[in-house]
Amino acid sequence: MEVLVNNKLYAVQPGTTIAALLQFIQLSSHKGIAIAVNNQVIPKTSWDHQALSAADNITIIRATQGG
């Protein structure tokens, strides 16, 4: 199945969780990021068991520091 991550298409296995997706796209550090699936923010506590569906639109937002 295919999902869209920050406007880039990825092919993943059915039942892939958010945590598995982050590992697949090699985003090793989960600090300072937020995930939204179809414009709904998913709590970090749900990433290990929240399964993705075909054509989901995932947005990954990384916090940055600046001045």
Question: Can you describe this structure in just a few lines?
Answer:
With 67 residues, the chain is mostly beta strands. It is built from one helix and five strands, in the order ββαβββ. It has one helix spanning 18-24; strands spanning 2-5, 8-11, 33-37, 40-42, 57-62.
What is the helical fraction, as a range of percent?
Answer: 10-25%
Q: Which secondary-structure class do the elements indicate?
A: mainly beta
Radius of gyration: 12 Å
What would the principal axes of the Cα set say about the shape? globular
What is the number of E strands?
5
Oligomer: single chain
Structural commentary:
The protein is mainly β and 67 residues long. Helices cover 10% and strands 33% of the residues. The chain contains one helix and five strands; from the N terminus they run E-E-H-E-E-E. The chain has one helix at residues 18-24, and strands at residues 2-5, 8-11, 33-37, 40-42, 57-62. The chain has a five-stranded mixed sheet, with no helix packed on it. 9% of the residues are buried.
